[in-house]
Every structure is written in C-alpha cells, then in structure tokens.
Amino acid sequence: MNQIHIFSPATVANVSCGFDVLGFCLDTIGDEMIIRKTPQKGICISKIEGYDLPFETENNVAGVSALALYNDANPDFGFEIEIYKKIKPGSGIGSSSASAAGSVFAMNELLGKPYNKTQLTNFAMKGEALASKCEHADNLAPALFGGFTLVKSLAPLQVLQLPTPKDLYAVVIHPQIEIKTSESRAILPQEIPLKNAITQWSNVGSFVHALHTEDYNLLSDSLNDVIAEPYRCQLIPYFDDVKQRALKHGALGSGISGSGPSIFSLCKGLDSAEKVKTAIQNVYSQTSIDFEIHLSKINTEGIKIL
Amino acid sequence: MNQIHIFSPATVANVSCGFDVLGFCLDTIGDEMIIRKTPQKGICISKIEGYDLPFETENNVAGVSALALYNDANPDFGFEIEIYKKIKPGSGIGSSSASAAGSVFAMNELLGKPYNKTQLTNFAMKGEALASKCEHADNLAPALFGGFTLVKSLAPLQVLQLPTPKDLYAVVIHPQIEIKTSESRAILPQEIPLKNAITQWSNVGSFVHALHTEDYNLLSDSLNDVIAEPYRCQLIPYFDDVKQRALKHGALGSGISGSGPSIFSLCKGLDSAEKVKTAIQNVYSQTSIDFEIHLSKINTEGIKIL
C-alpha cells in the first residue's frame, strides 16, 4: 500500500464533568486526508483545501506530528500529505487534533502498523502542542481510539477506552465566532474550591459508571460542569439559551465542547437528537451569528480508512 | 420477627483518589447489635459493651439515626437497642457509621423492609452528623450497600454501587492514636490547585473503570491521593513507612482510611494481603505505638443478619 485516504473525525473534549480528561468522537464531521509514500525522504504537505493553513511541515500540526513519528520510524522513503480540511480551526471540536491524529494514523498504516494507538497519540501530541501551546490529548484520544476516552495521565501517556452506550447521539452547534484557546484557558482560576472539585470528581466517577451500565439517567445527572463552564459560558453568546433549550427538549446534558465556542448536547436516540437539533438551531437562527450544526452518532471507531 | 442480631461492618472511606465520595466495606471487623421490638413506644438503648458511649438516645449515633427512621415510620411499638461495640471510635474505619447504619438496617428488617438502602442511608446520616458535625455518607454507603460505593450527591442522596473485583483484599492497620475528624478536616485547604483536582478526577474515573474491568494494574495506578494525603499524612506517625512497605510488598495501593489514623492497603489475592499485613505490622511493632491490624476480603453484602 503506497497511498491511503482517511476520514479524521471531529471530537468533543471535556464533556462537562471531565475537564481536561474526557472526550468522545463524532462521525459526521471530520477532515479528509490523503497520505502517500514518496521516494524522497521527509514529510511534505502538498495540498491543503478548505482552510488557509501553513504548508511548511514544521508550522503545520499535521506536519509536526508526522515528523515526530517519521523521526522515530526513520524509513528510507518519505510521505506526502494532502489535507482536505472540513473542521474549522478554532471551532472547539478538535480541528487541530483531527489533523495531528490523521497524519500519524495514516503513516502508521502505510508502515504496516508498527505503533499502537497510545504511541500514535504521543506523536500527535507534538502537533497538537503547536496549535494549543501545550501537549494535551483530550481530543486526540477520542480521534485515535474512538468512542469515549479518558486520558488518565500524560506522562506516561495512559488512555482508557470507555464503553459507548449504543443509543447515544451528539448534537454540536458551532456559532461562527472566534475564541482563542489561550483566552479560554486564561479565564479559568488556577485554584478552585475543594467543594467544587469534589462535585466534579463524583460526577466523573458516576459518568464512567453510567457508561459501563448504560444508565442514561445517571449519564444525564453526571453531565454537570462546576469548574470551567461557569467562567467560559460568558465567552459564548446565547450559551445559556442553547443549553436550556437542549435540556428542555430532552437532551441528557449540554455543555461547552472543548474550550468552545461549539456547544454539544448528548441525547438518547436519534429522534431525541433531531428534536434537540431543531430546538437549538432556532436559538442562533434568530440572531445575526452564523452557525453550523452537526448531528452524529458516537463514532466508536475513530479515524476511518475511506 | 421481634428481634434481630446483626453484624455492622467497618468501612474505609475516601480510598485515596475518592475524597468524600468513595468507600468500601470490610468483612472481619465490625460491631454487633441486637435490636428488638418493645411494647412501649420510642427508642431505648439498653446495653452498650466494648466502649464507653452515651446511653441517651439523642446523644448516641445509633439512637439518633434510629429516631430519624422511627419518626418517619411511626409504628405503634418501640425498639430496644443493644450495642456490642468492636470498632474503636475515632479509628477512621467508620465506627460511628457502623452504629448509625446498624440500627436503621435492623429496624427496617423488623418493620418488614419498608425502606430501600438509599432511604436507610438518609436516616443514618442524621446519626453520623452527631459524630462528625456534618452529614456525610462515605462510610454509611458501603456499610449499607456493601462492596465499593460512590456517593454521587448528598442532596438528593444518590449512592452508586460499584462492582467489586473478586480477588480484592484489604489490610487495615489502626495505630492507637487519636485524631479528631474536626482536626483532620481543618488541616485541609479550602482551595486547591486546578491541576491537582484534574489529577484527582482522572484517578476517580480510572478507578471506577478499573473496578468494572477488573483491571488490577489500573486500580493500582488510580490509587493516588494528591488532595488530602499530603496534608493528613503528617498527623499519622510512620505513615510513609507503612505505605512504602505495603507497596514494596505488593499492595496495589495504600492510603489513609477516612480521616485516619487507620491506614488501608488494597491487595490482589489473599497471599499478597498476608505478605502486606506482615510487612506493615513490623513497622509499628518497632515503635511504642499500640496497633490493631485487620485483613479482610471486600464485603460485598454490607450489614449481615447473624
């Protein structure tokens, strides 16, 4: 195999209760990438469509993660990367992670799979760090592992694949405003009340238990964020309206996707998800803010070969 | 049935990563209680053996929790309680919880089980509050539900029963020193670094996942406390020695039981637990501090009828 065409999905990090550790993978929105072997050594980005991103390998997240794997594998040939970017950078649904994970996933396939998913996540973290100034894996893990993931630790990297209840759907609305991840980070306090932290870790524990037991009511009860949302919600116009509307129309929970501005809702069943989709798109329809909205089953596979 | 004789077990709260929310139940140490119906209405404590505790119903944790249930059930008879106290008050293995949970469990049996375990926990919290000045359920829940429990929330009370891996044993050493729960609470900061909180909730999530998947390595990796232990360990002489010795001899994890001074270790298999028991009792044997040590399978049943 000399060439591979992949779908690299968008992902939702944090998932309300799991700030910096939980994430899940979407199915209906993602980048496409074509990666092929080249006789000349090194990594070359030959095509970028969709959004205006740097072609220089070391300035492109897909390029930087590709280099990390390439330098480790040290093959006697090179790779050429074509990126068909569908996920808008800065959307809060793992745009940079899709690029960073996609290139290493594809190269690993072309090399005969010498690396496991945790190793791929490690390489991809180098690319992710270019975009967000720090290494993290809460979007990379669901893109590479699929389903729900918990990043247990970064050093050493330890990713847990959590079970995905079969009737779970996500609705993600992306208001077309810009929030910088750095701004979204800076707004959070460095110290938090112990009381709130206890609430958060009881929710993380019950969320994981709910995934294992397919307990949708408990899942719903666990989807609360007392840490980041109270600060970050002010950066997203109409956040409260969207959330209230989603819950009123049957969503199990609703919160900020990653550092925003996208807002995710989790729903039991397609019918419920469609109702929630209609309800929340009506919020932004009545404003001057453009938006995109995605309805997706949870993608339990992660990146897919097309 | 006019009389019931029960075993009300000791319990370990916090379990390193789950400050204020996690707990598990022991099998080889606990109080015994005899509760019988009486023609005269009200709650009367007729006998207390083992430790010197108040006989006045409203000053005794078993009495206060009994009254909470009694006032709700409002039967046309009363109850008499005999307490054979084996768990030393202030040991950090749920002495007051065993009393508070025992009386309501037994009364519920004698009344024909009108209440579920969550309701019993709610009544018992009134008794627990007498001992610890605040309502909490992290020892009550494992005593009443058995196995590992997660107190998801207190208002409304929501207790989750987590799975118990079948080869799990606990070793609990109780150095005979006194630490007041209030002192143990006061030593903790009210605000904690967000970074540490994230570590803690990733550990709670992975701990719950490890219980579901019977992954003993992950269980071991999750048994870390970056919140309470760094402060509370100084209240327990030789804590570090005991912990290091336990880990060196194969314990999956080791930490402070509740607010101390007892120290628990979790072990895979009886052989491992026996090695850990021998290793850690050697620590206190070489000091002037008296101690008790208990080795127990995890009690998945909770309170037992004898």
List keywords for this structure.
10 helices; homodimer; 2 domains; Alpha-Beta Plaits; 28% strand; four-stranded antiparallel beta sheet; 12 strands; alpha+beta; 306 residues; Ribosomal Protein S5, domain 2
Write the layout of secondary structure elements.
Two copies of one chain form a homodimer.
Chain A: E1 3-13, E2 22-38, E3 42-49, H1 61-73, E4 78-84, H2 95-110, H3 117-132, H4 140-145, E5 148-154, E6 157-162, E7 168-175, H5 181-186, E8 191-193, H6 194-213, H7 216-222, H8 229-232, H9 239-248, E9 253-256, E10 263-268, H10 270-285, E11 291-297, E12 304-305
Provide structural commentary:
Two copies of one chain form a homodimer. With 306 residues, chain A is an alpha+beta fold. Chain A folds into two domains: 3-162, Ribosomal Protein S5, domain 2; 168-297, Alpha-Beta Plaits (2-Layer Sandwich), CATH 3.30.70. Chain A has ten helices and twelve strands. In chain A, the strands form two sheets. In chain A, strands 1, 2, 3, 4, 5, 6 and 12 form a seven-stranded mixed beta sheet that branches. In chain A, strands 9-10-7-11 form a four-stranded antiparallel beta sheet, with helices on both faces. In chain A, helix 1 (61-73) runs parallel beside helix 2, helix 1 crosses helix 3 (117-132) and helix 9 packs antiparallel against helix 10. The longest helix of chain A is centred in the middle third of the chain and has 20 residues, at 194-213. The two termini of chain A are 14 Å apart. The A-B interface holds A 17-22, 150-153, 158, 160, 162, 188-195, 197-209, 212, 218, 221-222, 227 and B 17-22, 150-153, 158, 160, 162, 188-195, 197-209, 212, 218, 221-222, 227. Chains A, B: Residues 67-147 form the GHMP kinase N-terminal domain. Chains A, B: GO terms for molecular function: homoserine kinase activity.
